[in-house]
Amino acid sequence: MRMVDLIQKKRDGQELTAEEIKWLIEGYVDGSVPDYQMAAFAMAVYFQGMTTEEISELTMNMVASGDQIDLSAIPGIKVDKHSTGGVGDKVTLILAPLVASFDVPVAKMSGRGLGHTGGTLDKLEAIKGYQIEQTQEAFIEQVQDIGLAVIGQSDNLVKADKLLYALRDVTATVDIIPLIASSVMSKKIAAGADAILLDVTVGDGAFMKNIEDARELAQTMVNLGNAVGRKTVAVLTNMSQPVGRAIGNRLEILEALEILQGQGREDVAHFICELAQIMLKLAGVEKNLPEIRENLTNGKALAKFEAMVEAQGGDLTDLYREPDVAEIVEIVAEEDGYISALPALEFGLFAMKLGAGRAVKTDDLDYETGIVFEKKVGDAVKVGEVVAKIYTNQNLGQKELSDFKKNVKIEQEEVKIREILEIVS
């Protein structure tokens, strides 16, 4: 078998066999298939796509390329959650402990952010001492003890994806459904959970810009999960504006704590309770929304989060600390009306330039910087009211502030948006 023949076959729109895909993945992992040929293959997939059978074979061969975690020592149905990425997405920080507070074990491996999308691991590392690296044994033991762990992905888990994702990132082949689906689901399947909730973000700040592509990606991933015995449900969620109020690592930790104390924005709390209801149902636990909300107000979910932070070396005193920045710049409304748009991508890129995100994987983060919105889409504003606060360690010039202000859209009619657009099962 020759790689050039497989590239040509896919380039011409033909379907690869199971044997060919197995040979391709094994060869890429052992180094006999070089990066330049895999890059050519990824571009061929970008233009020609893959059949359902090809995606399934690709996913399971990627799973087989590294370790697979056995969570059978943990009693009960283990649930996991994955987001396809967005701006201000601190959902896992709240959702995981909320679900765990109902005695449903949550064993989650998370990723880092790149570009305008924030990573859960980066947010957790804003807490002094928090250790994202854990052995498989320690990971399982922690879930057994407190019902919750959020750690980094092992280097030995899905080796093929680790190699292929880095290659896709530098060859403009990230945003193609077969490669996104196989990347996400190979990691989720290898991580060992019994049930998986997929948060597929849609809109300006997401990889999927329209509902049709998001629906196709969601259905592809759900089918992959269910085909190997993992109960899988996807929700299509709105990423036209940032999630919640905060963008930035420490700022998002503080917003998560606020919601875990029964406070924070009502729309975000309700959205997370809806996701929790779906995750709990996947684990065979039926709860109504008021029952779920109660665990945000009675301290049970917060206690789970604090227990996880402490178990992974985090400093509980530092946890509640306010950001340490040189300046907080207030952005005020220049007319009366309603906030009609806060483009997630633009504000994600702005926060990245403040140091809250990475342009490339080797960039250092400034965990303290970011943006807090005092007003969101649909909120009424008056001239002079604070719309947002910029937490910065840089001297922002008039151009930067002007660029920020022009993306705060104000209209005379109220706009309403939904967080959950569809459920795919």
Automatic annotation (TrEMBL):
What is one GO biological process annotated to this record? Answer: pyrimidine nucleoside metabolic process
> Organism, per UniProt?
Streptococcus merionis
Gene from which this protein is expressed: pdp
What name does UniProt use for this protein? Answer: Pyrimidine-nucleoside phosphorylase
Q: Which reaction does it catalyse?
A: 2'-deoxyuridine + phosphate = 2-deoxy-alpha-D-ribose 1-phosphate + uracil; uridine + phosphate = alpha-D-ribose 1-phosphate + uracil; thymidine + phosphate = 2-deoxy-alpha-D-ribose 1-phosphate + thymine
Subunit structure and binding partners:
Homodimer.
**GO terms under cellular component:** cytosol
Q: Which family does it belong to?
A: Belongs to the thymidine/pyrimidine-nucleoside phosphorylase family.
Q: Which residue range or ranges hold the Pyrimidine nucleoside phosphorylase C-terminal domain?
A: 338-411
Q: Does the keyword Glycosyltransferase apply?
A: yes
Q: What is its EC number?
A: 2.4.2.2
Is this entry keyworded Cell membrane? no
Per UniProt, the keywords (alphabetical) are: Glycosyltransferase, Metal-binding, Transferase
Q: Name one GO molecular function term.
A: thymidine phosphorylase activity
Task: Read off the Pfam families from this record.
Answer: Glycos_trans_3N, Glycos_transf_3, PYNP_C
Per its Swiss-Prot or TrEMBL entry, what cofactor is needed? K(+)
According to the UniProt entry, the coiled-coil residues are none
Q: What does this protein do?
A: Catalyzes phosphorolysis of the pyrimidine nucleosides uridine, thymidine and 2'-deoxyuridine with the formation of the corresponding pyrimidine base and ribose-1-phosphate.
